[in-house]
Amino acid sequence: MTTLTTTEGAPVPTGSAPFLSVRDLHVRFSTEDGIVKAVDGLSFDLERGKTLGIVGESGSGKSVTNLAVLGLHNPKSTEITGDITLDGEELTRAREKSLEKLRGNKMAMIFQDALTALSPYYTVGRQIAEPFIKHTGASKREGRQRAIEMLTKVGIPQPNLRVDDYPHQFSGGMRQRAMIAMSLVCNPELLIADEPTTALDVTVQAQILDLLKDLQQEFGSAIILITHDLGVVANIADDLLVMYAGRAVERGSVKEILTQPRHPYTWGLLSSMPRLSSDVNESLHPIPGSPPSLLNPPSGCAFHPRCGFADTVGAARCTDERPLLELGRAAACHLSAEQKQTLFTEQIKPRLG
Ligand SMILES: Nc1ncnc2c1ncn2[C@@H]1O[C@H](COP(=O)(O)OP(=O)(O)OP(=O)(O)O)[C@@H](O)[C@H]1O
Ligand code: SF4
Ligand SMILES: [Mg+2]
User: Fold this and answer.
1) Where would I find the ABC transporter domain in this sequence (predicted)?
2) Does 60 reside within a domain?
3) Residues enclosing ligand 2, CB less than 6 A?
4) 73/71 Cα distance (integer angstroms)
5) Domain termination residue (choose one: 131, 156, 187)
6) What is the pLDDT of residues 245-260, one digit of tens each?
């Protein structure tokens, strides 16, 4: 386990500082309709050489969290509080110039939407080479060679010809791969991969995941992998953070969470996911309702309007009191440890097969 914090940002009781440390992060957007509390008190750590998976339904704050790590929010409309420290350097209050030096080099992101990351006006090769030239001082020729090498690694056919294409000449899946090449070109020490393989078919998906593993093995990179696909998480991540309404609701090792999940929301996610081993006719159990508006999130436990276990907790505790995430392996829920264990064993596990 590498994540050892409370949601309230308590200090980590370990010797050396983690490579990436996020403490009590809040990200709020000013909009015409009011303040969107997209991230609401999130803390986690990540060590070099480890992969942290982040899962949660659409709108739970996964991308917003990671864009904050890279310093990519518009400061005019975004309020960010809390601490983000990368290899000892504080990022939330860092100047744009320092962040620019880190981005694309020490830390890089594979964006959810390839089109937002690629400019239509420059060739794919130029865009892949640019961070390499900027951060290593390589010549244009060396940059082009490096771009061809990266296109080869991500499985683009005829890379020495396609390097001169513009993004519109690539298919959607090829653009996604070109963007992955761009993110990996400087061997980043922190790689944030936001749904990196959703647009890709299964063979290419496996190839990209292998590439991420290679990067990690060779350079000891730390990876944050955001995904809806728990199969991908099981394959590649060490630890897992489950997010709901801008907060972490459960954390632990991937094995712990996939075999002994403790939070009713995680139970819902797992029960609604098709299983490879399952019978085609086996029914899934979608979580009732939909994620809340972050303009005015529910009081207490944000999951309470959708949770089938609030009555087990009793009184109005779930609606009134926000459950905290304890140290280490933990779930932010008012159910007692015994209740979680019994409910999981008797009601949830039989559904998961
Ligand atoms: N620039 C912005 N201005 C206002 N609200 C925003 C902005 N960016 C994101 N949000 C809101 O913040 C919330 C979290 O968004 P985020 O993109 O982090 O979700 P996500 O977990 O990545 O979802 P998905 O799985 O769909 O990618 C959403 O309610 C979203 O509408
Ligand atoms: S705190 Fe209450 S509402 Fe929230 S997940 Fe636990 S039982 Fe459900
Ligand atoms: Mg997202």
Assistant:
1) 22-270
2) no
3) 264, 301, 303-304, 307, 309-310, 313, 318, 323, 333-335
4) 6
5) 187
6) 999 999 999 999 999 9
